[in-house]
Amino acid sequence: MIPQLSIEEVAKQYSDKQLLAIADKVKNQQRLTEEEGVLLFEKGELGFVGALAAHISRRLHGDKVYFNRNFHIEPTNVCVFTCNFCSYSRLYKHRDEGWEMGIEQMLDIVRKYDGQAVTEVHIVGGVHPKMNLEFFCELLTKIKAHRPDLHLKGFTAVELDYMFRKAKLSIEEGMQRLKDAGLQSLPGGGAEIFHPEIREQICADKVDGEGWLKIHETAHNLGMHSNATMLYGHVESYAHRVDHMSRLRALQDKTGGFNCFIPLKFRNKDNDMSHIPEVSVIEDMRLYAIARIFMDNFRNLKAYWPMLGRQSAQLTLAFGVNDLDGTIDDTTKIYSMAGSEEQTPAMSTEQLCDLIAAVGKTPVERDTLYNEIKIYENTTA
Ligand code: V47
Ligand code: SF4
């Protein structure tokens, strides 16, 4: 069981006036300013931010922790961009070292799940110069025709920005075409850190922060939902993290279209930032907790277990997280190539339920939009 202290019990242990004022705000459901966000990163001990975050998560979700049954399709790892943190991509001139899938090959992946209760396919990959909007519309149409019940979540804002510019379409026009072909929501990738000071150092050549936000806003305005991520633990400062979360919070105020926020820990194997050490588990947990406290209009905070590793992901459940993503079925390579301990990421429903139940929480299977599919009251999946 995860120990649960009330805000009052926690506050008794602290005398710092600024921290106590933040605890009061959390108790009264008031929004934190950016300065208070930075202050939490600077001064908030793990026990303090953890108790506040757990309080919020309990208020919103009780003991429920969500997961879904999903698989990924990664059409290619060939990419025109050169993000320094990426261990996964290969330039077009080195495409013989990577992979490029045709439509039939991707449909074969979908057919593997015939008769299985998966609810979502997550389609994301490198930005291949020859895989264009028409190609992806055909893919989406064919997947939908084969499996109408599958929720199609696909394409980072980075892929979309390139696709639409190449097709000489506005964001609205391009997004509408994909929506007509069956696309239902967008994953959160490509956000990294929005602030240009950091973006220039880690991913200078792809869509900027404003562009990323505009693409998600457009999707929301068309009635689609999306996720948001933040790549943390490299060269960014606390102020950059808070700036990033604040921009997402502002867009969520405007559209309400984000399903969840997913902090992604920088992993340092085999990339151009390998000299930067990975942050500690304590820093991971502090970040999840502060995200839960600061992002007051995001109902769902997701720990993506293939990236964090399943033990750390389980630990986040005590620090404000209420979602662990899905079964995955070993269909993504992004994190195994970047050095995650999960080299063949796949978890059965039983394993996910056990992981959640082991810390006294109630596993709940959800669909992409967080509609509840099944509550596992006594853990037998
Ligand atoms: O944008 C790439 C990250 C993202 C590394 O929406 C890295 O449900 C750490 O966004 N270390 C793509 N992170 C994946 C992504 C995602 C994953 C799971 C669920 C969802 C969702 C979205 O992966 C990239 C980048 O931020 N990434 N390389 C690395 N070395
Ligand atoms: Fe390409 Fe995405 Fe890797 Fe950047 S993170 S190089 S956009 S695959």
Give a description of the structure.
There is one protein chain. The protein has two domains: 54 residues, no CATH class; 312 residues, TIM Barrel. It is globular and about 60 Å long. The strands form three sheets. Strands 9-1-10-11 form a four-stranded mixed sheet. Strands 5-6-7-8 form a four-stranded parallel sheet. Helices cover 43% and strands 13% of the residues. The mean pLDDT is 95. Helix 12 links the parallel strand 7 and strand 8. The chain is built from 16 helices and eleven strands. Helix 4 packs across helix 12 and helix 5 runs parallel beside helix 6. The chain has 381 residues and is α/β, with parallel strands linked by helices. The protein starts with 6 loop residues before the first helix and ends in a 6-residue tail after the last strand. Ligand V47 binds next to strand 6 and strand 7.
